[in-house]
């Protein structure tokens, strides 16, 4: 603001203020422009009689962008005007993206929260008709927990040992083949994994629907994630550690178990937790494989089970108000479940993060 | 005594190395078995098919003789994923920049965190939200599109519920936004500080710093993040199945209902499928698999190239 | 150490988790009292069944009643649609299938692979009910349509609610100028089969397609299962669709009255559909009880779009492990208690002489 004055004052010899800083808009001007354009947008909207509030907002946005650019270009120059445009654009991206995501979280919490209570968490759907209120998700939580645990029982040992093999032992063609197939498998669509187990286990080998069948599909999805993340973490372990241990005469296998793995344990656990969170929300293969059940079935190896994602899908399918309420409540529980796994993963990562840099 | 420990050490080493090698082989065997099994079933179905697997607009895989084709599915999968990419990538880059270079630092950390958590929200919840909340909201937008762009035919809209490929694309865009953002942000944050400071010292504005240092450095990272998102979008099942009104025809308008995707078609058809029907679905699943493989492979190539590039730089 | 502690914590949490849940929902406000007298229970066991979503509501009540009265018995009926139910039955993964349409001859042949002792699949009519045509139209709560108009609506030939053809049938209604969205099933369904049988029988020119479990008409939108259609009609003004009356009533949806050519339009009610079922003929042979309905009826008080849903079982059983449970459960559903329960949820019981035969068939399963 002081710059134009300085310009006019160049004639006066006494006050020769030379500054290298280019003229800038004062920091309050952006806010002022925003408020101004919003008012103008509302005014035009009211006068023009536009129904939609969205149109008001759009008009205000256009006015804001245009005036900011014009003003900035006039006072600060084109480069700074472009800079301001870019900043507005980035902010706009942020707002545009935050709207639906915030809405998703808000809807789930707002519609789900009234339905979640102790009763909901500890009862099954036995005896509750689809158009009645009430019932619970206990059987679904139990199913999800069991299926995820079984899946990790299958996938973790295989995945971890494979990663150890690839990093510590693997040379030559076998290692290459394993790396290639693991890469291929990370891309397998979950529904295709489900279809594979359905065709092989249930249709050809005639084992019937069960939580275990679902767990096997989940394990297929989990293995490549575990291998890849563990591999990355093991590679980060500095070779000096291994060499120091080996130099002291410690056999290789004990070096791996006592030195390498403990060093990388934080990263490995994080990877595993993230993989768990990922498969806990898987719906498609579960729908194909566990059949669904309204009662508690604690035996994952025999008989139909339920699971949280499947429960949400079922309740959504019933189409009644009571069922929608249950679907939202279960969705909230599922999000909470996944979030807890995620937060745990982050906590472990921070807690166990290698203290030393490379 | 020493010889004894030595032998147990050797035994332990042998046991452990064989164990890890064995599990590697087991994993390989499982993966190979899946691939071979799926391929065999797919070939059985395609051999028996009366229609043309690539061009037929129908899915009567249970009929005798079976008659099915993936034309509609391929179209729907590609179109909805492309819409998702077009919508999501620019916005995701914007948010990533916002977090890495524009937002106040404390806000940025919080947002980055929330974005990471959103990447983990199960797809069925996006589907539930999409079907019950998003679809009704979109009618107004589609009417507006129809009003101004309806003449193109691509944006014609008849006022029926918005359960179309466009809606699927929008929902997929929202779903893959967090994952693209979080990977892109990581890459942007790794831009060498020296380069940025050099640019600033030359008097560059913030945008010029971004344009001249951050974006060139992060370009391949953005591409591989997008590919990752694309892979997710291609294979997404439940979110699509809940918001789309499926049918076996290709609609000229993206806003009108109809169409289908590979994953959605498998989810809605498998339960009625006899053994031939299942084989046909497996065949379509294999095509989806190849499609994702292509995308992932491309992403991996780009990442690998970037590693060399940045390695040479460092 | 810490890992071990973690393991202890996890297993402790698991023990807690398995201990604190319960199947007992009888304390809920508005919980249904499922207890009935003299229900003959089979030894405990579990069985899986799947199929028609048209009878899903009846099955929900039956299954819950049976489970409430017979401890340690689990029956899982998954309403996946008739097509899916028949497939799963033919693959031998379920004990019986619920279906709204009859098996084809080749399907009956296929059933010999899963049926024991050279048996085959037979149809047991168990529930009947009107297929209501429900709609959501602001300001219109009484709507009359005839077969031809219905056929043209569902074939996307009539596209707006104020079309002259609809106005002619409803001179008093104020029909809004909004698009019609007809919703059909995206999955294979006996409901679709019955509904299109009616359209084809009563208005063959407007509906030239062969009746089929899959939808053959043009245009419109689709959704999965009867309940999926209900959701669509609820959410979308201008929507029209077809599903069982019980779904329409549970959700307070308006249903269309049909102008069949009788003195006055007939409403979709349990009574009007019972009249249609009473006129059905048994066409099955050798102990099979498949029924044939007259879709083109013009009689007063007879609602023509009626669906008879069958339980499809092997006449000599399929899996010895579940046979007793299947028999006990179906004996209950076909018995007086089971059939009486139907009226309360907008289904029609099967007429006396036919249900007698059904009970004999069930007894003879061995």
UniProtKB/TrEMBL annotation, chain B:
Transmembrane segments: 24-46, 66-99, 111-135, 164-183, 280-303
Keywords linked to the UniProt accession: Cell membrane, Membrane, Phosphate transport, Transmembrane, Transmembrane helix, Transport
Pfam family, one: BPD_transp_1
Record's bilayer topology term: Multi-pass membrane protein
UniProt KW rRNA-binding keyword: no
Subcellular location: Cell membrane
Domain ABC transmembrane type-1: 74-299
Gene3D superfamilies: MetI-like (1.10.3720.10)
Major subcellular site: membrane
Family per record: Belongs to the binding-protein-dependent transport system permease family. CysTW subfamily.
Function (record text): Part of the binding-protein-dependent transport system for phosphate; probably responsible for the translocation of the substrate across the membrane.
Protein name, UniProt field: Phosphate transport system permease protein
Organism in which the protein naturally occurs: Streptomyces johnsoniae
Name of the gene encoding the protein in the UniProt record: pstC
């Amino acid at each position: 603001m002081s710059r134009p004055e300085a310009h006019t004052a160049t004639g006066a010899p006494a006050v020769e203020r030379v500054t290298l800083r280019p003229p800038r808009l004062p920091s309050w001007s952006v806010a002022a422009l925003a408020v101004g354009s919003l008012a103008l947008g509302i005014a035009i909207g009211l006068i023009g009689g536009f129904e939609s509030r969205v149109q008001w907002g759009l008009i205000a946005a256009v006015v804001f962008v245009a005036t900011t650019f014009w003003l900035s270009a006039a006072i600060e120059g084109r480069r700074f005007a472009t800079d301001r445009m870019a900043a507005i654009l980035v902010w706009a991206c942020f707002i545009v993206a935050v709207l639906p995501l915030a809405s998703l979280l808000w809807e789930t919490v707002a519609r789900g929260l009234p339905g979640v209570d102790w009763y909901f968490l500890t009862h099954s759907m036995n005896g509750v008709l689809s158009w009645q209120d009430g019932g619970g998700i206990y059987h679904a939580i139990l199913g999800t927990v069991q299926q995820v645990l079984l899946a990790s029982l299958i996938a973790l040992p295989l995945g971890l040992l494979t990663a150890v093999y690839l990093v510590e032992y693997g040379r030559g063609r076998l290692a290459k083949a394993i790396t290639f197939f693991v890469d291929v498998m990370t891309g397998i669509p979950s529904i295709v994994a489900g279809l594979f187990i359905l065709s092989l286990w249930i249709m050809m080998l005639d084992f019937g629907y069960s939580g275990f069948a679902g767990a096997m599909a989940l394990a297929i999805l989990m293995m490549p994630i575990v291998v890849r993340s563990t591999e990355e973490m093991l590679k980060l372990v500095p070779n000096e550690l291994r060499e120091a241990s080996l130099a002291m005469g410690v056999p290789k296998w004990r070096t791996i178990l006592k030195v390498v793995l403990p060093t990388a344990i934080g990263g490995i656990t994080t990877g595993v937790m993230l993989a768990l969170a990922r498969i806990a929300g898987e719906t498609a293969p579960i729908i194909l494989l566990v059949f669904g059940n309204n009662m508690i079935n604690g035996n994952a190896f025999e008989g139909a089970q339920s699971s949280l994602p499947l429960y949400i899908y079922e309740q959504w399918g019933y189409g009644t108000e009571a069922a929608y309420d249950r679907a939202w409540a279960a969705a909230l529980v599922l999000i909470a479940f996944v979030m807890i796994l995620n937060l745990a993963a982050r906590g472990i990562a921070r807690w166990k993060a290698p203290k030393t840099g490379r | 005594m020493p010889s004894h420990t030595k032998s147990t050490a050797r035994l332990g080493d042998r046991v452990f190395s064989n164990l890890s090698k064995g599990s590697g082989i087991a994993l390989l065997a499982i993966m190979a078995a899946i691939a071979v099994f799926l391929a065999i079933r797919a070939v059985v179905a395609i051999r028996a098919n009366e229609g043309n697997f690539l061009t037929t607009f129908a899915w009567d895989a249970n009929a005798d003789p079976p008659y099915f084709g993936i034309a509609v599915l391929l179209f729907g999968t590609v179109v909805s994923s492309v819409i998702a990419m077009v919508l999501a990538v620019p916005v995701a880059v914007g948010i990533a920049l916002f977090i890495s270079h524009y937002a106040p630092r404390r806000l940025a950390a919080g947002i980055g965190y929330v974005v990471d958590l959103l990447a983990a929200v199960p797809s069925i919840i996006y589907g539930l939200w999409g079907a019950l909340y998003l679809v009704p909201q979109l009618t107004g937008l589609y009417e507006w599109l129809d009003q101004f762009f309806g003449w193109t035919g691509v944006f014609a809209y008849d006022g029926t519920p918005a359960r179309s490929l466009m809606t699927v694309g929008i929902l997929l865009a929202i779903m893959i936004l967090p994952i693209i953002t979080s990977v892109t942000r990581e890459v942007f944050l790794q831009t060498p500080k020296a380069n940025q400071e050099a640019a600033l010292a030359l008097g560059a504005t913030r945008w010029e710093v971004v344009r001249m240092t951050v974006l060139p450095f992060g370009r391949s990272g953005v591409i591989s993040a997008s590919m990752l998102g694309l892979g997710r979008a291609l294979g997404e099942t439940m979110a699509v199945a809940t918001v789309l009104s499926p049918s076996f025809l290709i609609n000229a308008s993206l806003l009108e209902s109809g169409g289908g995707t590979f994953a959605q078609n498998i989810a809605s058809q498998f339960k009625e499928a006899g053994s031939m029907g299942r084989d046909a679905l497996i065949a379509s699943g294999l095509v989806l698999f190849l499609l994702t493989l292509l995308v992932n492979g491309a992403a991996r190539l780009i990442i690998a190239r970037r590693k060399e590039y940045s390695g040479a730089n460092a | 150490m810490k890992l071990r502690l973690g393991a202890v914590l996890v297993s402790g949490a698991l023990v807690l988790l398995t201990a604190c849940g319960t199947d007992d929902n009888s304390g809920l406000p508005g919980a249904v009292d499922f207890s009935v007298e003299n229900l003959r229970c089979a030894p405990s066991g579990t069985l899986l069944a799947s199929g028609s979503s048209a009878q899903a509501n009846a099955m929900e009540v039956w299954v819950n009643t049976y489970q409430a009265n017979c401890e340690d018995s689990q029956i899982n009926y998954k309403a996946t649609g008739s097509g899916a139910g028949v497939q799963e039955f033919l693959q031998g993964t379920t004990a019986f299938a619920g279906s709204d349409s009859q098996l084809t001859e080749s399907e009956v042949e296929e059933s010999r692979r899963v049926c024991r002792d050279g048996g085959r699949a037979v149809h047991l009519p168990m529930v009947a009910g009107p297929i209501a045509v429900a709609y959501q139209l602001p300001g219109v709560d009484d709507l009359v349509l005839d077969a031809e108009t219905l056929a043209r609506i569902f074939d996307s030939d009539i596209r707006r609610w104020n079309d002259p053809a609809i106005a002619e049938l409803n001179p008093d209604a104020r029909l809004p100028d909004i698009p019609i969205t007809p919703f059909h099933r995206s999955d294979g369904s006996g409901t679709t089969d019955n509904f299109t049988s009616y359209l084809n029988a009563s208005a063959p020119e407007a509906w030239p397609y062969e009746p089929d479990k899959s939808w053959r008409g043009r245009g419109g939108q689709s959704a999965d299962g009867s309940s999926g259609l209900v959701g669509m009609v609820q959410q979308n003004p201008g929507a029209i669709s077809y599903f069982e009356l019980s779904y329409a009533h549970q959700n307070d949806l308006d249903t269309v009255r049909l102008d069949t050519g009788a003195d006055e339009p007939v409403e979709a009610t349990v009574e009007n559909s019972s009249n249609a079922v009473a006129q059905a003929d048994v066409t099955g042979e050798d102990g099979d009880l498949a029924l044939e309905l007259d879709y083109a009826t013009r009689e007063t008080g007879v609602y023509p779009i009626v669906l008879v849903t069958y339980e499809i079982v092997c006449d000599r059983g399929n899996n010895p492990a579940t046979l007793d449970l299947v028999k006990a459960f179906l004996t209950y559903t076909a018995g007086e208690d089971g059939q009486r329960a139907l009226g309360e949820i907008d289904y029609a019981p099967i007429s006396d002489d036919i249900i007698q035969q059904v009970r004999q068939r069930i007894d003879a399963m061995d």
